[in-house]
Amino acid sequence: MVLAFALDNSYSIDKEELKNDKKSCKKIGPAGFGQKAIYLNSFYIDRMWYLPWDEVDRVFKRVAMSKGGFSGKGAFASLSYLVVLMKNGKEKQCLFKHEEDVDRALTYIKQEHPQIPVYSKTAEKKLKEAKVMLEKNYVKNLSNESKKAIQKLENAKEYLEQKPVMTQRLSRTAGKMRVQQMVPKSSRFLGISIFIISILTVLLGTFFVLKGATYGKYMLLFGFAFFLFSLTGNLVPIGTNKREKIEEEWENAVIELRNYIAKSPDFPVPARYAHPVVIDRMIRLIKQGKATSINEALEGVKKELKALNASVTVSQEEYDEVTQVKPMFLVSEYK
């Protein structure tokens, strides 16, 4: 049995090694990350293709249909891809269902394979240019209070980065909470109605198929199609999509981080906002002279995020930051 196919015929891994490596690989979405290779999905099959790490030039995220903005109602819909650029110049992009899984994959690669860039060449160039432009706005002679605040925040960021799964979970559950909060009652009622009708259609279709009626199979097809539509639309409050379940996940994520940061004396940020991106934005405000203390910096971040709505267009880098942390502030009501 073939476990996975090489993306290029110029290399191969021993079948037994490949079997063991794929079996023990870290699975994130449809991709896998082993000791020997990275495993990528085809359109239908997860982890069907493999590429040895030595053949990987860079890995990065590509977002399609993104409008580069953020509204008070949440992020715009998008298609998220993990793109792997090979050293021979070829490219393989893999569609992920959830954008946060792409972020988790890139975080894992950054930790386990720090020599592999996790940005496209274009993005890398833009980031360097943005960093230069940003640093031009930094205050040259900061006060001692500001320097101490920056040092404390940098230490806090370093501490958080030791547990990236926790901060990613906080961001992810906040996003789910925000989606639930913004679904109108009318839409939820419509989703539940479609769900019930689809079940009845499937049952009737099964009955007519057993009776030999030719239209029974069409009822089954339409019933299953609407059943899947109602589930993927996040409108039916069942299983992990229940509001109570999502609220519990958010509370557990906050509690987990609160217990973790309690081990770091005088941690500067509340657990509900304990995310490296939040701390980065706080540091930038202090370096720009817009804040001198940690409390002022946090209030400044809140003010910035509140100002971002549907009428504001931002860069892709800003968009990536905001989509990670704004839901946390929204569900916490900026308290």
Any key phrases for this structure?
335 residues; alpha+beta; PH-domain like; 3 domains; three-stranded antiparallel β-sheet; 10 strands; globular
What percent of residues are in strands? Answer: 5-15%
Q: Number of DSSP helices?
A: 11
Parts with pLDDT < 50 across at least 5 consecutive residues: 66-76
Radius of gyration: 24 Å
Strand order of the largest sheet: 1-5-4-3-2
**C-alpha end-to-end distance:** 56 Å
Give the topology string: H per helix, E per strand.
EHEEEEEEEEEHHHHHHHHHH
Q: Helical amount among residues, as a percent range?
A: 40-55%
The tally of structural domains comes to: 3
Assembly level: single chain
E-strand count: 10
Protein name: ATPase P
Keywords: Coiled coil, Membrane, Transmembrane, Transmembrane helix
Describe what you observe in this structure.
This protein is of the alpha+beta class and 335 residues long. The protein folds into 3 domains: 5-16 and 23-116, PH-domain like; 139-182 and 241-331, no CATH class; 185-233. It is 53% helix and 13% strand. The protein has helices at 15-23, 99-112, 121-136, 144-160, 164-182, 185-210, 216-232, 243-261, 276-287, 294-307, 316-331; strands at 5-6, 26-28, 31-33, 37-40, 49-52, 56-64, 70-71, 74-75, 79-86, 91-96. The strands form 3 sheets. The protein has a 5-stranded mixed sheet, with helices on both faces. A 3-stranded antiparallel sheet has the order 6-9-10, with helices on one face. A hairpin with a 3-residue loop joins strand 3 and strand 4 (37-40). Helix 4 (144-160) packs antiparallel against helix 9 (276-287), helix 6 runs antiparallel to helix 7 (216-232) and helix 9 crosses helix 10 (294-307). Residues 66-76 have low confidence and may be disordered.
